[in-house]
# Entry
Amino acid sequence: MSRVHNFNAGPAAIPLEVLEKAQAEFINFENAGMSIMEMSHRGAIYERVNQEAQDLLRELLNIPNNYKILFLQGGASTQFATIPMNFLTEGKVAAIVDTGAWAGKAKKEAEIIGETIVAASTKADSYMRTPSQEEIVVPDNAAYVHVTSNETIGGVQYKEFPTFGNIPVIADMSSDILSRPIDVSQFGMIYAGAQKNLGPSGVTIVIVRDDLIAESPKTIPAMFRYDTHSKANSLYNTPPSFAVYMVGLTLKWIKEKGGVAELAKINEAKTKLIYDVIDESNGFYIGCAQKQNRSTMNITFRIKSEDLEKQFLKEAEAAGFIGLKGHRDVGGLRASTYNAVSYESCAQLAQFMKTFMQANA
Ligand code: PMP
# Structure
């Protein structure tokens, strides 16, 4: 059976080893006579799967003990709403750093809940960079500063994160969590849907400083309160057990690969192959993001004519390269090179791009 070179933006590639392990355990998990999906989430086996995934995530990201790890549902999009519901209390403002499409959605939801300001925006630069620390203006009464670590659509990534003293930074890391080492203690909260770097869709990872969620406002229904899920160790209601199990397998795979620092090196090398083709193409390919903020997860680029872009996509697909169409809001081309996309796939794409250029320049 042949597998494609999968450059999908999300859901995205999952390591073959992870899929094979899940396949081997699919029908009869640990001799329980049933699959992981068929057993009670209150049983000893699932409790261990839940705990092991948390412990591995803590180990791989070096998460300090005063941070809780939660496995939630509703995608990162639900976090856009629950963050202001839990933290944007009376007299406070939500400060959003506007770097593109996903930051914009976080802002929209916060506005529904309470006073929201844009602490900085790179709209004037077509969202092709992240702002510097100095550009970000945060009022004293900010409940938090929200940043989008990697804009999946724009292909723009923070290389360093801003800090604001006692005001917590909350980062949407949906499209680059576990792609590089981070200092978790710089953040009040980090969240990410699993479906890009961590496994299948259906579970959202939240890493949050425990003092921030000690007690959520009483006016919020139970499912939307972080303290509910924290007190219940992410077992308040029926969890997305298969997705959590798959996240656990993916984390084991990351550990076997040498951990996050090792993956970061591979991700840099992978994306360099493709950015180099763009940079050495004499304008045939045009990189979208400014160089200092180029993403190691989503490479966004254009070809000098839209007709050539269409032809590129068609020929790429025929050659086994899948998912290279840019997001429908911005057009162009995008190669998503998440952890599970191999160096070999990137090398072959780079070669394909060169050949396509030679034939069409
Ligand atoms: N934030 C970012 C940066 C994303 O890339 C996405 C999904 N592509 C989301 C949030 C929304 O995630 P979900 O679909 O899990 O709600």
Q: What stands out?
A: The chain has nine helices and 14 strands. Residues 16-256 form a domain with the Aspartate Aminotransferase; domain 2 fold (CATH 3.40.640.10). The mean pLDDT is 97.
